[in-house]
Amino acid sequence: MSTHEALSATLQKFGAPETVVREYEHWTVLLRPHQVTLGALVLIAKEAATALPQLSPAAFSELKQVTDHIEQALQAAFSYDKVNYLMLMMVDPDVHFHVIPRYNKPRIWAGQEFVDVAWPGPPQLSTGMELSETAKTTLRNELIRCWPC
């Protein structure tokens, strides 16, 4: 993200620029500060849109590549069982998805156990783990390391 580009309120809420994992032309992938499950991300559109149909055809086209990369990185890093994309936009109106990797068994990362307490039902956004700043940085760096291309 260029320093002259203004950060949207949604990007700021989710910790940008410190939490940015990957930038694309139309999308930004960030580490979700509250880890509902291990590797939870937020995928935010860069366009000024508050409804999915307001996005440009180019943003929709790029979404395929972005989600492919997200799932490749999460699989390489944590061997998820399923990925849920939640588009809620009730509190943060900009077009964005909460990307929640799902696990049928606990995962151990950095000496901590992460349990998907809602498996196999819908994810519970109020559950999960708050990580220290050091752990967030380490997790973000692990995802960057596993990112394709």
TrEMBL record:
Xref: Pfam families: HIT
SUPFAM superfamilies assigned: HIT-like
Taxonomy, superkingdom: Bacteria
Gene Ontology molecular functions: hydrolase activity
Domain (HIT): residue spans on this chain: 7-109
InterPro entries reported in the protein's UniProt record: HIT-like, HIT-like_sf
PROSITE patterns named among the record's database cross-references: HIT_2
Record's keyword annotation contains Hydrolase: yes
Keywords: Hydrolase
The name this protein goes by in its record: Diadenosine tetraphosphate (Ap4A) HIT family hydrolase
